[in-house]
Each structure stands twice: as structure tokens, then as C-alpha cells.
UniProtKB/TrEMBL annotation:
UniProt cross-references to PANTHER family, sorted A to Z: HTH-TYPE TRANSCRIPTIONAL REGULATOR, LYSR FAMILY TRANSCRIPTIONAL REGULATOR
Gene3D superfamilies membership: 3.40.190.290, Winged helix-like DNA-binding domain superfamily/Winged helix DNA-binding domain
Keyword NAD appears in the UniProt entry: no
Domain HTH lysR-type: 1-60
Protein name: LysR family transcriptional regulator
Single annotated GO MF: transcription cis-regulatory region binding
Entry keyword set: DNA-binding, Transcription, Transcription regulation
Stored InterPro entries: LysR_HTH_N (IPR000847), LysR_subst-bd (IPR005119), WH-like_DNA-bd_sf (IPR036388), WH_DNA-bd_sf (IPR036390)
Residues that span the membrane, as ranges: none
Family: Belongs to the LysR transcriptional regulatory family.
Length: 296
């Protein structure tokens, strides 16, 4: 069997136009070429596709059954060709993006929608991880981008563009002893168990760690649940309260007395400058840089 795309396209056109001559006019061929193509298909398939007794060919049950499959197959062939052309123009086969756990409530999906619109054939994989693990994924190049909080010192291989500011707030259950105070001292914080969002690698010290005793989790959803269960205090994204106002009935924002920790951060899109970035990655970087230019 040696059916090619042109034969499939001719067969589809005949089915849709109802005759060899109409199909020939539509695709710019002579009727004899269309008739010959269908005849060769029938020989290759060992099937009768059209009854030729009247003025116009009548599709058989086998032709009708193959028609829908043919439509889908031609669509897939076209998608395959477009994908191959994209790869030849520098489009990466896939793009891995890791979003720091506390930033899952931000509008990061806007960037994914932009990429999908511009590169519909691109395979995009999204991961969520604590900040330290997201940085590891950039270093070992298992992710091309990380949406993460600003850091005081970047690795020499990293490059970034600022996206927005994001706030975190220290909270405790309304039933927690700390919630009884209008202001909480550093000593009270230090002595109270903290629920920390941290790397799964226990050798890495969690960021924003203030307490002598702490429990670890790798995402802010489980941290919120543990804090609401009065298992400790912790630091959560302010956006969680905006999206779920009911949390305000269960959690109290703590006011620190002795010090003012930095709980407002820039959110950066970070990438490894040593990675070979494809056209989709470069498009996103340039788009974000242009947005910053327009905002200045």
C-alpha cells in the first residue's frame, strides 16, 4: 500500500464536491487525473470507493467510513508539517517552566496563554516547587524558566527580568496564642513553631525562617492548612486572602513589634544564560522587556 497525501486530499475533495469533475475544478487538475488517482487508491486498498454507473460517482459504505478518518489524518499531517517547520526555524521541542509555590496565585498563566497563541505547536510543561528547588532546576537545566522571588545574589549563570511586586504576610490561626497580641515580639516569634515553605532537600535552610522550631512543607497550600489547624504560624501570599476572603475569618495577620522583615518582593522571570534558548523562550523574554520599556 502506497497512499500519499495528494491522493488523500483528492479523495476528500471528491467526497465533498460529489463528482470527479467538480473536484478537478476545485484543486486545479483535469478530471482524468482525479479519476486516475481514485482508481489507484482503490487498487492499493483493494476496495471499491465509488460506484460509477450514473453521471456522478456514488461513494460506497467503505468510502464513507474512510472519509472521516481521512479528514483527521490530513489535519494531523498538516500539523506535523507545521511543527517540523517550526523546529527548523529554531522552535524548541518543549519549554519547561517552574513556578515558585507562593506565586501560583499570581497571573502567571497570562504568559502561558501568550506563548500558546504565538506558538500553538509548542509543548509547555509547568512545574511548582519551593524557591530553592526552582533554582536547582534552572542550574541543572531541567527548566528553561523559573518564576520566582528576587534574591539578594544571583548565580553567575542566571539572568532575569522583573515582572511585578508580590506581598507575603505573616499569619497565625485566630486560635493561636500569637493571635491574642496586637504586636508580637521577636522572642515570641522565635519561640513559636513556624510552618515554613521550603525545599525538599532538608540540607537547605528555608528562606524567611524566624523560629527556633519549624516544620517544613513544599507548598503554601499545605502550609495554609497546617496554620489553620493551629499547628504553627507561617508566611503566606497576600493574594491568597484576595482570592479567598473566607481565610480572614480563620487567620490573623501578625504585626511584628521588634523588627520589620522584608515581606514585599519583586517577582522575576529567571533563566540560565548558559542554556540554548529557542525562539519561544526568546520571544517571551523580548516581550517582557518591551513591556518594561513601555511602563517606564
Amino acid at each position: 500500500m502506497n497512499i500519499n497525501q495528494e491522493q488523500l486530499s483528492i479523495f476528500k475533495t471528491v467526497m465533498e464536491t460529489g463528482s470527479f469533475s467538480a473536484a478537478a475544478r476545485k484543486i486545479g487538475k483535469v478530471p482524468s487525473a482525479v479519476s486516475m488517482s481514485i482508481a489507484n487508491m482503490e487498487i492499493d486498498l483493494n476496495l471499491t470507493l465509488f460506484i460509477r454507473q450514473g453521471r456522478e460517482p456514488v461513494p460506497t459504505a467503505q468510502a464513507i467510513a474512510l472519509y472521516e478518518r481521512t479528514q483527521n489524518l490530513l489535519i494531523e499531517i498538516n500539523e506535523w508539517r507545521q511543527y517540523a517547520l517550526s523546529l527548523s526555524s529554531g522552535l524548541e521541542s518543549s519549554l519547561n517552566i517552574v513556578v515558585v509555590s507562593e506565586l501560583l496565585h499570581t497571573n502567571w498563566t497570562d504568559y502561558i496563554a501568550l506563548l500558546e497563541k504565538q506558538f500553538p505547536e509548542l509543548q509547555i510543561n509547568i512545574y511548582s516547587a519551593p524557591q530553592e528547588d526552582a533554582q536547582k532546576m534552572l542550574t541543572n537545566q531541567s527548566a528553561q524558566f523559573a518564576l520566582m522571588f528576587e534574591r539578594e545574589q544571583l548565580e553567575s549563570s542566571e539572568q532575569f527580568v522583573e515582572l511585578k511586586r508580590e506581598a507575603l504576610v505573616p499569619v497565625a490561626s485566630v486560635h493561636h496564642p500569637l493571635a491574642a497580641y496586637d504586636q508580637v515580639s521577636f522572642e515570641q516569634i522565635h519561640q513559636s513553631r513556624q510552618i515554613a515553605v521550603a525545599s525538599r532537600d532538608k540540607s537547605i535552610k528555608p528562606e524567611l525562617l524566624f523560629s527556633k522550631h519549624h516544620w517544613r512543607t513544599d507548598n503554601h497550600h499545605s502550609a495554609c492548612s497546617m496554620i489553620m489547624q493551629n499547628l504553627g504560624w507561617g508566611v503566606l501570599p497576600l493574594e491568597m486572602f484576595n482570592e479567598n476572603p473566607e481565610l480572614q475569618q480563620h487567620l490573623k495577620v501578625l504585626n511584628f513589634l521588634d523588627f520589620t522583615p522584608k515581606f514585599e518582593y519583586f517577582v522575576d522571570l529567571v533563566w540560565n544564560r548558559e542554556s540554548e534558548l529557542g525562539s519561544a523562550a526568546r520571544f517571551l523574554i523580548n516581550h517582557l522587556r518591551n513591556l518594561r520599556k513601555d511602563a517606564i
